[in-house]
Amino acid sequence: MNRSQGPRLRTRRLVALSVTLVVIAIFWGITRWETSRLGMPAFFTGFTLLAGLFLLMLLGVRRRLPFWPLGSVSTWTQIHLYVGIFTTAIYVLHVPALIAGGVLEGCLSIIFLMVTASGFYGIYASRTLPKKLTAVEGQHRFDRIDWVRNQIAAAADKACRQISETSAKQVLETFYQQALSPFFVSRPTLAYVIAPNGNRRRRLLGDLKELDRYLEEDGRRVAGQLAALVRRRDDLDYQFALQLRLRCWVVFHSLLSLVLLAVSLIHMVIVLRLVG
Amino acid sequence: MDSTPTIPVQRPSRWDEPLDASMTDADVAWLRTRGPFNQMDQSAFPRATPLSGILRYDCRLHRVEPGEVIVREGDYGNSAFLLITGNVRVLVDSLTDQQLGRQPTRSIGWGEALSRFLRRSRHPETRTPEQVSINAAAGGHQAIRQVDDRPAIFLQDIEGVLRRHESVSLGPGELFGEVAAMYRSPRTATVIAETEAALVEIRWQGLRILRRDRRFADTLEQHYRRHWLPIHLREIPLLRYLPEENMQRVIEATELRSYGRMEWNADYKKTRKLHPADQIAAEPLVVDQGQLPTELIVVRSGFGRMCVRHGAAHRTVAYLGKGHLFGIDEIAYNAMRPESMRPIHYQHSLRAVGFLDALSIPIEVFAAEVLPHIRKSELPESARSLQKSFTEKRSDRRRVRSDQRSEAADRFSPDPTQDIEHAAGVSFESTSLLEFIVQHRLNNGREAMVIDLHRCTRCDDCVKACADVHDGNPRFVRQGIVHDRLQFVQACMHCSDPVCMIGCPTGAITRDQTTGVVSIHDPICVGCGVCAAACPYENIAMAEVVDRKGRPYVDEKSGNAIRKAAKCDQCSGLPSGPACAAACPHDALVRIDLSESPPLSDWLEKRS
């Protein structure tokens, strides 16, 4: 594949970052200048921060207006990203300490830092998790995951009922009742959803492999089917965990942004009243 | 002795599925007393497909009433019509969408777009009474009526239409619609019944066998050669500088050939699961690799697969679509080489994927009439280096023709300064992607929805945006076949070969001639499901419709629910354009033309 376009993307990123840094430097210069002439740069940086927050909120507004030609959401996302970096820098110029003193200001600082941190995590997550999702077999829609989970459970149950050999029936049915059925029927645990891993899969597949020596041909065939279903179900749970994380992150980031905006407005009103 | 048990079954035969199962021996006998069937030479037909069989199984009798629209301009169809009794009118002028019961695409302003968004229905698939049936809006005039056992659409004010629009009258024995049926091209005119008339609809398979009758074939051939071949040849960009006299010689020598099955969509589900080697082996061979070139193949319609022998099998190197050329490298090289150099053979095979209609220009005609009028920059690389000596040999002839050439250039080329790109086919550097696209016939898609799964966060903002601009009803689901990091989503691709448009009884599914968007006109959609069944990609859904209070519409006679076909309309008319692509926050989704390689290649390059 021709990679000549690759540098163009990198150039775009470099230009955008450079422009952001230049603007930050200009604002830093203005702040220094204001400080040197005994002005109140906190007003300047504060209102800039507020304007930045409003600008950042516009991404959400754009997403809710798909019927107007306001530019693509991906362009808005790029703008959101660089404005986010700029706003973080202005925050550093604005506050005396990373977490300001006072109850309201302290809360405001913590919320700002949480929103910022979640924003940066979002960049990381949106660039890494899709690749992990794609690497897993099957592309499941989030709203259909429960349905697919039930289908897998039903298929496992059917496979278990198919066993005709008495010895295999006894061995596999016992294992199915004790280990597989709870796995297939239940939803993944919270621990798995937070940090998905291959432990369950390895344990169950290892145990199934162990049963091979107690089984004859028919039993091994069914055990193979069950192993395939274990893999499918684990892949599905992995998809569920990562997709849920991506969705939760968006909800968390946007809700916290609203809270941030509200608290920022309160902070502004209080400051203006105090200054008179 | 071999004692392997056998399973006796009835061998499938040519006419297992007749066009009309209700055709009787009496109908056939009556048709055989009518022209042109009464003049046909029965001995010209093979024993397996006699004339009576064609009439019985490949034909259908229609009774049409005055004012009924028989075929519409722009529609696609598999059948030609032969007039038996009565008169029909071929409208030379185009009718407006409203006259045909369609809603023209209207540009929606910002205010109306907002108002529609805010007034989204709480119920799925909501329609107004006017959207459910054109009869509700026609002020007592029944625009859609049942004629015998089928729904038919009627023009309002037929006399006024005929008075205002230029038309040609056809009488008994005359055939129409055969070019669209044989060569899978849109109908070029609307035909309406002037009086009550009887017609025979002949499907293309039957029409092809009927051409075994010399007189019938000559009539069709002359008609095609006189009226359509010049148009088809002039559509080829490489011939845009050709002077008229050369063009005439090309027209005389060119032949049209057809390969494969036009109903490729019927086999699609089966063939897409075949191993690529088996699929390639099953595809009709147009030109075999290693033959000495004798003709230039120009794809007229359908699809071709260019492949090359690789080990024990064939590897796909490109796919061809309408307007693409096969064999130009070899022919140009052979025509321009010095005599001391050996001629080269076809370097690739060409096979029909589904069906392929090709114009075949003999090599000697191409070399003499066309080659001198091709720009150097448009010649294949191998021939370009040889062009100098070739040009010197022909310099005298070129000087004589220069005046004519400039005239021809003005006439045929919209932008003569632009070189033609990809005239020789479409290829991707990734062979597996190419094989995948051909295997799944995605090269049919002009506006395919492709998602880069390495960027897609599965947020479904695309689906939500689609639903937001379609009254709460998403017109696609984010699922589809996956190759590597690309997902080809199940959304209408607005195909080059829109098989969904064939067979719609009222012309409710249409293609916009300017944008190429295939859309459904609700008021004249009778909910028969022909389009949904025909779409091989399953991108059309049939939906039961309700009013804004959620009350289902039902047929007043049968009480059955009213259904409408629903599909992606590319957000036609909306100021935003396709909402799905604009809504993706990670630039992961794109609507792209897969019939050409540059859009997808460029898009992939940008994210590599």
TrEMBL record, chain A:
Keyword Membrane, does the record have it?
A: yes
> What species does this protein belong to?
Stieleria magnilauensis
Tell me the domain of life.
Answer: Bacteria
Transmembrane stretches, start-end: 12-30, 42-61, 73-93, 99-124, 249-275
* Protein known as: Ferric reductase like transmembrane component
For this UniProt record, the keywords arranged alphabetically read as follows:
Membrane, Transmembrane, Transmembrane helix
From TrEMBL, chain B:
Q: Which residue ranges does the record assign to the 4Fe-4S ferredoxin-type domain? A: 447-475, 516-545
**Which GO molecular function, any one, fits this protein according to its record?**
phenylglyoxylate dehydrogenase (acylating) activity
Keywords carried by this UniProt record: 4Fe-4S, Iron, Iron-sulfur, Metal-binding, Oxidoreductase, Repeat
> Looking at the record, which segments are called Disordered?
382-419
For this UniProt entry, which segments traverse the membrane?
Answer: none
- Pfam families named in the record: cNMP_binding, Fer4_11
Source organism superkingdom: Bacteria
Q: Which Gene3D superfamilies match?
A: 3.30.70.20, Jelly Rolls
Bias kind Basic and acidic residues: ranges: 390-413
Q: Which residues form the Cyclic nucleotide-binding domain?
A: 57-210, 238-342
Tell me which SUPFAM superfamilies the record gives. 4Fe-4S ferredoxins, cAMP-binding domain-like
Positions the record marks as coiled coil are: none
Q: EC number(s) for this protein?
A: 1.2.1.58
The protein's name in its UniProt record: NADH-dependent phenylglyoxylate dehydrogenase subunit beta
Encoded by which gene? padI
